[in-house]
Q: What sequence folds into this?
C-alpha cells in the first residue's frame, strides 16, 4: 500500500466542504419546513413557493447531497492521487454534482416532480443529472486509465485495479437506471395491503447497502488491518450469501406484509448491525471517529428494529402515512447515514484539524441527542395520528407542542451542521 | 373585454380559452368564452368528456389554460401568484366524489380549511355550526365520513366548500353519484345556500333537468361553450 489515506488530506477537505455544505443546505430547508408546520401562514411569505415546493429540496438534497457525497469521496480516493491535479479533478466532480442539485432544485421549486419521493428527477433536472453522471463516470474512467498505465509503479495491485475497473464500468449503468426508474410510469413492487414497499424489496436494497458497508474499511478507506480480518471477512461474506439466498427464496412481486416469508426476510436484517460492527472491529480506526462509529451502530440497530416492528401487520396499519414514518426516515438519514458519513469524512484522510473538528464531543452529543428527541417526538405524534387522524388536520395543542419541539431540535441540528461547514472552510489544504 | 351583467363587471370572465392534453393530440377546450355575473347560479351542461370539468378546473386554479384569458373574482387562475389566494379565499370546490378525508369526522373535514387559511379556530367552529344547521347535518357532526350516506357526504362537501366564505362555488357533477331524489335535494340545497350566502355558483352537470333550473345555462360541446 503505497498511498495511505493519511496523505490525501486535500481530497478529504474538498469532499468534506461540499458534503457539509449540502448537509447545511438541506437542514436549512428542513427547519423552514418545520416552521411552516408550526406557523402555516408563513407559506404566504414566499408564495407560490409553499410547503409542497420545498419538501422535495429537503429530501433530495439530503439523499443526493449529504448522503451521497461522502461515499463519492471514498470512490474518488481510489482514482486520484494527492497531487494538486488530483484534488482539482475531485473538485470538478463535486462542482458538477452540486450543479445538478441546483438545477434539480429549480425544477422542484417550480413544481416539476415525479411524485416518487426518492426518484424525484423530472424534466430538465432529470436530463441534466443523467448527463452529469455520465461525465463524472467518464472522469473516473480517465482516472482508472491513468492508474492502469502506471500499474508497474505498484500504486495499486493488479487485482484491485481490475475490481476498480469493474466498479467503474458498473457506474455507467447508474444514470441509465436512474433515467428509467424516474419515469412516472415505472413503479417498483407495492405491498397490496399497506400501499408501501414490500419486504423483499426492502431486504434487497438494505443488503446492497450492507455490501457497501463491508467494502468501506478495507477496500474503500484502506485502513490497517488486524490479525483476525481474514476470518471475519469469510463470516461476513457467508452471512451475506445466506441473506441473498433468503431473498431469492421468499416471494417477489406485490407481496403483502401479512406473509410470513416477508416478515422473516425483513427480520433477517436485525442481525446485520452486529455482524458489521464485529467485522469493522478487525480494522484499525482512528480515535477521532470512535464516537461516530458508536453512534452509527446504535442508530442502525434502532433503525433495523424500528423498521421491522413498523412493518408488522397491525402496526403498519396504524402508522402508515403518519409522522411515525417521518421518525423512521429521520432515524435512517439523520441518525444512521449521517453517523456513517461522519466516519467516512474523518477516515478519508489525515487532515488533523478536520478530524478534530468533526469529532468535537459537544457537537457530536448535540447532534445525536437532537436526532433522538426528533425521533421520539415524531413517533409519539405518529401513534396519536394513527389512532385519531384529526389531531393532525385540526387545531390540537399537543400536536403544536410536538411540532414546536421538532422545530427546536431541527434548529440545533442546523447549527451543528453550520459550525462543521464553516470551520471546514478555515482548514488549509495540506497535500 | 368582458360585457357588463346587470350593470356590473362579471365575477367570472372567460375569453378564448383553449386546452389540450397529450402534447396537443386531445383538444378538450376550443376558444371557450363566457361571462358570469355576481350571485348567478349557472350550469355548464354537456355529455361526459365534453370539457366541463376541465373548464371548472381552470376557473378554480386546479389546472391552467394553454391559450386565452380568464379572470375569477378579480384574479387570474392561470397565474402562480394569484392562484394561492384564489383557491384559499375566493373559490370553494364541490367534487363529484366529494374528496373528503374518510378517517376524519364531518366537523374535522370542514375545520381542515381553518388550518390551511390560518384562521381563528373559534370563528371557524361558529361558522361550521351555522352551516351545519342550514344543511341539516348538525346531528351527525361527530360521525366519520365513512359512516355517512352519499347525500350526507355531499352536504358535508358543500359545507366544507363554504367554510371560508368564498365568492364562487365551483361544483363538478355534485349530484352525479346520488340517486334521483337525493340528487334533487342536494341540488336544491346548493341553490338555497347560494342565495342565502350571496355566492356565485357554477355547476357542471350532464342532467338537463338540473341545468334548466339554473339562472343561466351554457352548453359545452366538443370543447366549445354556447349559451342556450
A:
Amino acid at each position: 500500500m503505497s498511498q495511505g489515506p493519511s496523505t490525501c488530506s486535500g481530497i478529504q477537505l474538498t469532499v468534506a466542504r461540499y458534503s457539509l455544505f449540502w448537509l447545511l443546505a438541506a437542514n436549512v430547508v428542513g427547519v423552514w419546513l418545520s416552521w411552516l408546520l408550526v406557523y402555516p401562514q408563513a407559506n404566504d411569505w414566499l408564495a407560490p413557493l409553499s410547503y409542497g415546493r420545498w419538501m422535495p429540496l429537503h429530501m433530495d438534497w439530503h439523499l443526493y447531497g449529504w448522503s451521497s457525497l461522502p461515499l463519492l469521496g471514498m470512490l474518488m480516493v481510489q482514482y486520484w492521487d494527492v497531487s494538486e491535479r488530483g484534488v482539482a479533478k475531485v473538485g470538478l466532480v463535486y462542482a458538477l454534482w452540486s450543479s445538478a442539485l441546483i438545477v434539480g432544485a429549480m425544477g422542484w421549486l417550480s413544481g416539476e416532480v415525479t411524485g416518487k419521493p426518492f426518484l424525484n428527477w423530472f424534466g430538465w433536472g432529470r436530463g441534466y443529472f443523467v448527463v452529469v453522471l455520465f461525465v463524472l463516470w467518464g472522469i473516473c474512467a480517465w482516472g482508472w486509465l491513468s492508474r492502469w498505465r502506471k500499474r508497474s509503479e505498484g500504486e495499486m495491485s493488479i487485482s484491485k485495479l481490475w475490481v476498480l475497473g469493474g466498479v467503474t464500468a458498473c457506474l455507467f449503468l447508474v444514470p441509465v437506471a436512474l433515467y428509467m426508474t424516474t419515469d412516472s410510469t415505472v413503479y417498483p413492487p407495492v405491498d397490496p395491503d399497506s400501499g408501501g414497499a414490500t419486504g423483499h424489496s426492502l431486504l434487497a436494497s438494505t443488503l446492497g447497502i450492507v455490501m457497501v458497508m463491508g467494502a468501506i474499511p478495507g477496500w474503500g478507506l484502506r485502513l490497517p488491518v488486524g490479525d483476525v480480518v481474514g476470518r471475519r471477512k469469510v463470516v461476513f461474506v457467508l452471512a451475506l450469501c445466506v441473506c441473498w439466498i433468503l431473498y431469492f427464496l421468499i416471494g417477489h412481486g406485490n407481496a403483502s406484509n401479512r406473509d410470513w416469508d416477508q416478515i422473516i426476510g425483513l427480520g433477517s436484517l436485525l442481525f446485520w448491525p452486529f455482524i458489521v460492527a464485529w467485522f469493522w472491529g478487525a480494522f484499525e480506526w482512528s480515535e477521532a471517529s470512535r464516537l461516530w462509529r458508536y453512534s452509527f451502530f446504535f442508530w442502525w440497530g434502532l433503525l433495523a428494529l424500528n423498521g421491522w416492528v413498523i412493518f408488522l401487520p397491525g402496526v403498519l396499519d396504524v402508522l402508515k402515512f403518519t409522522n411515525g414514518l417521518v421518525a423512521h426516515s429521520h432515524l435512517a438519514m439523520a441518525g444512521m447515514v449521517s453517523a456513517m458519513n461522519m466516519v467516512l469524512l474523518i477516515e478519508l484522510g489525515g487532515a488533523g484539524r478536520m478530524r478534530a473538528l468533526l469529532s468535537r464531543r459537544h457537537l457530536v452529543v448535540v447532534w445525536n441527542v437532537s436526532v433522538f428527541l426528533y425521533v421520539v417526538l415524531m413517533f409519539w405524534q405518529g401513534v396519536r395520528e394513527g389512532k385519531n387522524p384529526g389531531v393532525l388536520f385540526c387545531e390540537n395543542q399537543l400536536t403544536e407542542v410536538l411540532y414546536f419541539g421538532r422545530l427546536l431540535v431541527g434548529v440545533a441540528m442546523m447549527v451543528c451542521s453550520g459550525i462543521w461547514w464553516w470551520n471546514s472552510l478555515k482548514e488549509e489544504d495540506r497535500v | 373585454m368582458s360585457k357588463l351583467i346587470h350593470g356590473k363587471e362579471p365575477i367570472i370572465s372567460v375569453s378564448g380559452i383553449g386546452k389540450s392534453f397529450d402534447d396537443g393530440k386531445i383538444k378538450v377546450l376550443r376558444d371557450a368564452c363566457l361571462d358570469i355575473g355576481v350571485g348567478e347560479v349557472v350550469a355548464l351542461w354537456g355529455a361526459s368528456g365534453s370539457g366541463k370539468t376541465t373548464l371548472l378546473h381552470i376557473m378554480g386554479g386546479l389546472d391552467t389554460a394553454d391559450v386565452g384569458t380568464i379572470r375569477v373574482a378579480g384574479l387570474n387562475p392561470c397565474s402562480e401568484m394569484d392562484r394561492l389566494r384564489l383557491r384559499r379565499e375566493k373559490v370553494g370546490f364541490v367534487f363529484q366524489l366529494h374528496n373528503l378525508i374518510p378517517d376524519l369526522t364531518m366537523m374535522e373535514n370542514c375545520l381542515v380549511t381553518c388550518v390551511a387559511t390560518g384562521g381563528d379556530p373559534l370563528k371557524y367552529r361558529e361558522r361550521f355550526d351555522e352551516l351545519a344547521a342550514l344543511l341539516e347535518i348538525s346531528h351527525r357532526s361527530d360521525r366519520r365520513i365513512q359512516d355517512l350516506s352519499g347525500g350526507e357526504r355531499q352536504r358535508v362537501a358543500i359545507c366544507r366548500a363554504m367554510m371560508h366564505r368564498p365568492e364562487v362555488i365551483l361544483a363538478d357533477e355534485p349530484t352525479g353519484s346520488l340517486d334521483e331524489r337525493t340528487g334533487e335535494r342536494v341540488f336544491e340545497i346548493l341553490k338555497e345556500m347560494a342565495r342565502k350566502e350571496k355566492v356565485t355558483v357554477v355547476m357542471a352537470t350532464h342532467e338537463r333537468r338540473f341545468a334548466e333550473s339554473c339562472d343561466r345555462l351554457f352548453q359545452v360541446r366538443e370543447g366549445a361553450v354556447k349559451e342556450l
Observations:
- DSSP finds 18 helices and no strands in chain A.
- Chain A touches chain B at residues 40-41, 43-44, 47-48, 50, 389-390, 393-395 (CB under 8 Å).
